[in-house]
Amino acid sequence: MSLKPELTQKLENFIRRMKTNTESYLGYPVSKDFEYGQLAELLNYPLNNLGDPFVDSTWKVDSREFEREVVAFFAELLRAPQENWWGYVTNGGTEGNLYGLYLAREIYPQGICYFSQETHYSVAKNLHLLNMRHIMIRAQPNGEIDYDDLKETIRINRDKPVIIFANSGTTMTEAKDDINVISAILDEFSIVNRYIHSDAALCGAINPFLTPRPAFDFADGADSISISGHKFIGSPIPCGIVLARKDNVDRIARSISYIGCLDTTITGSRNGFTPMVLWYAINKWGKAGLASRVKHSLATAEYAERALRAFGIEAWRNPNAITVVFPEISHQLKEKYQLATANGITHLICMPNVHVKQVDAFIKDLQNEQSGQDK
Is-contact 66 214, C-beta < 8 A? Predict the structure, then answer.
């Protein structure tokens, strides 16, 4: 069977439009420099990694073997405790954050979750879904959590377990909350009942290659970490990785007899193709390749910041960030380059696929627009 001619034309028009739109964006953290042609054959099979990736099921059309390798790679990268880590490939960062908060709630049902005002919009939704008590903390001008406000708020509620939702790369400014500083605050109040989740959607694959290395992973005190796979790594389908301490995961696991597996994840049926995408990427690049991508992105971001400032734009970025922030620009240029804007600021994100020539083209458009306004 095939599509009717008019539907075939509609599909072809859509594909052309997607190609054009993919070439122009600079404002969203989605890598597009990937090629997964060798995996195309797998689209002919109903790959489904239902249940726990570390427990075989009666269902055999799955990619669990490859998913386990992906999770192990990131467990090492994020310095997870040996013999006490677990994880799976998610549908994206939001699911990973939901999982971390779910574990925290199960461990500390009476706990209070603290998160900054610059936290991703999905977190408030997750907290609502989980019916968790929470308090929003002020953010510093650069987007990092206000540690003084956090300290004072925890002091007032020090009799309750503390659940920290830490950002390692906020949406608009790529600010990173320092887990070492947060842990020191908890230590000062002798808070033993604590849980720290690290949202490293963009920066989880970047931070390990930075100097100094940001405080965001298990060795720094995190109990769970969420990363997006379609951001810095790149994937045609949104995906991510969540990692957690296994002894915490064991508390919520239950056996499902008819699939012969454990129920430890958020969803039942899970994408079996995206683990193959991530497996292909990490084996193609390895740690050295990821480090090279980080180096390239940082160099491009530094160039973009300098070039914008030379043109008179008050551009800035956080230390070792690939996100360049500047005052809000015209609607026309935001639309052309698909630039995210909020609270009077716009940003461009120097993903691995972004090069100097694209930055130059954007600045040239800024100059042309400014010249037209001056006339």
Answer: no
